[in-house]
Amino acid sequence: MLFDLCGADVRIKWLVTCLLATLGLSYVFGALMVSLYAGFTPNGIAATYAAPEMSMPMPPDTSVVVERPMYMAEFAKPEVHTVDTSLLVQDTHVHLPMYGIIAASLSVLVAGLPLRRGWALGLITLLFAAPWLDFAGMWLTKFASPRFASVTLIGGWAMGAGYLVVAALAIKRMWFSHARS
Amino acid sequence: MNLFVRAAAIAVVLHITPVVVLVKRTDAVQALLPGADAYFAREVHLSATDAHRLHEEVDWSPEDGVLTFYLGKAGPAAVGALVFVRVDTPHGPIEVAVGFTSQGTVRGVIVTKATVETKPWVLEAVHLGLTDHYRQLKPSATPGGAAALTGQAGSLAVYVAGEVDKGVARALAAYAAFYRP
């Protein structure tokens, strides 16, 4: 252990607690946002990120008009929220650095927990690998196969799980443990 | 640190917020094609020449090269036509529904979609009567909603009114060039 959260000054403990609470709140709203747009199923994620069928029909020589009856229910069909390549480039550019900073912050806390070196390394790897998986899944879904949507799902759940594990261990260590002399 | 703060600010500025539905499409259809009891989708598959002409005129290419007019009829009588136009702004897309009477003038305009960021600007513009300025416009007219709001509304509401103007201009150009009663 590089340092011990248990023996930290109360101000540091409070800072860490507030940070964890803030991150937790942002994760809750992140999950809500995902549920509003891509959803939590591989099919929903695939529909959001997978490129539409690349049929690219050739335009006709002269404009052609086709008319068909429409029913009101067709207007009410829920529209699928899609993310095109440009938006995915931007999302990756904006989100990944922030996820890196969050993973780094949580990893610093891991360093202050009484964990075996292997467990600590594993947890730190999980914290960084989760957002990589999340975005790798989106890119692979778009350009390789919709089946990779599950990678995004795994990455998202891994991010949540990593946060919960670190938060629970850190809170327990800071507020419910006694430091060894 | 200064570089980091600037990078974060740029990231925030560039981040496009999610799309929000301001008015459901079904409600827009009922409002802009009042009394209609049958609906038809008239799809104009644009030739390369026509698509180029439309793009040159109003900087717009309909999705997949297909321009869709929704027609409403009450019994045998035509109620009018409606077109949904998407305008991509640096702050995300907005969608404008433009309804035409059977005589070919604008019956009404409804902003159906915005983004979390642009929603308050759109609402401010609409509350100040933005969409009233488009009524009775002929297809050859130039929409002037933003100009009408200048001095009455905040700069962001005026800005977004300009984007709505673009959407209306696209609908007018499409109607003039490709709609045949």
The chain-level mean pLDDT of chain B equals 90
Q: Which series of helices and strands of chain B comes N to C?
A: HEHEHEEEEHHH
- What would the average pLDDT of chain A be, to the nearest integer? 89
What is the end-to-end distance of chain B?
63 Å
Protein architecture, described:
The complex is a heterodimer of chains A (181) and B (181). Chain A is mainly α and 181 residues long. Helices cover 66% and strands 4% of the residues of chain A. Chain A has one domain. The model of chain A has no long low-confidence stretch (mean pLDDT 89). Chain B is of the alpha+beta class and 181 residues long. Chain B has one domain (17-178). Chain B is built from six helices and six strands, in the order αβαβαββββααα. In chain B, α4 crosses α6. The longest helix of chain B has 24 residues, at 155-178. At the A-B interface, β1 and α4 of A face α1, α2, β2 and α3 of B. β1 of chain A pairs antiparallel with β2 of chain B, so a sheet runs across the interface.
Question: Would you summarize the structure shown here?
Answer:
The complex is a heterodimer of chains A (181) and B (181). Chain A is mainly alpha-helical.
Primary descriptors:
heterodimer, A: 181 residues, mainly alpha, elongated, B: 181 residues, alpha+beta, 6-stranded antiparallel β-sheet
Helix-strand blueprint:
The complex is a heterodimer of chains A (181) and B (181).
Chain A: H1 10-36, H2 42-49, E1 64-70, H3 72-75, H4 85-111, H5 117-143, H6 149-175
Helix pairs in contact in A: 1-6, 2-6, 4-5, 4-6, 5-6
Chain B: H1 2-14, E1 19-21, H2 25-32, E2 38-45, H3 48-58, E3 66-74, E4 77-89, E5 92-101, E6 106-115, H4 119-127, H5 145-149, H6 155-178
Antiparallel strand pairs in B: 1-6, 2-3, 3-4, 4-5, 5-6
